[in-house]
């Protein structure tokens, strides 16, 4: 598992998902808690912590970085459910 500069672990499944995607992602704050979404849905901020995963980047909100110790697949659940509802194949 890679770690960001602030020692936040990233689950292998998340790393694989981002590496195999055509997008960079951002872990941001939502009303349902921390969520990982494509940068087109939540633009990165200068204050984000970033880590390179393959050709893509994972941007972690500095707000979330204070509270999490690990980036988990559950944080992608909302986005994946959105893709399923919309019939989007490549998520």
List the helices and strands and how they pair.
Blueprint: E1 9-10, H1 12-19, E2 25-30, E3 33-38, E4 49-53, E5 56-60, H2 62-65, E6 70-71, H3 77-86
Parallel strand pairs: 1-6, 2-5
Antiparallel strand pairs: 2-3, 4-5
User: In angstroms, what is the radius of gyration?
Assistant: 12 Å
| SSE succession | EHEEEEHEH
Q: Give unreliable regions as ranges.
A: none
Shape category = globular
The largest β sheet comes out as: 4 strands, mixed
Q: Oligomeric form of this entry?
A: single chain
Count of discrete structural domains: 1
Strand arrangement, largest sheet?
A: 3-2-5-4
Helix content: 10-25%
Average pLDDT, rounded to a whole number, is 92
Termini Cα gap: 22 Å
The fraction of residues assigned to DSSP E strands is: 25-35%
The number of E-state strands comes to 6
Count of separate DSSP helical elements: 3
Report on this structure.
There is one protein chain. The chain is α/β, with parallel strands linked by helices. It has one domain (about 10-85). Helix content is about 25%, strand content about 30%. The protein has three helices and six strands; from the N terminus they run E-H-E-E-E-E-H-E-H. It has helices at about 10-20, 60-65, 75-85, and strands at about 10, 25-30, 35-40, 50-55, 55-60, 70. It has a four-stranded mixed beta sheet. A two-stranded parallel sheet has the order 1-6. The protein is globular. The mean pLDDT is about 90.
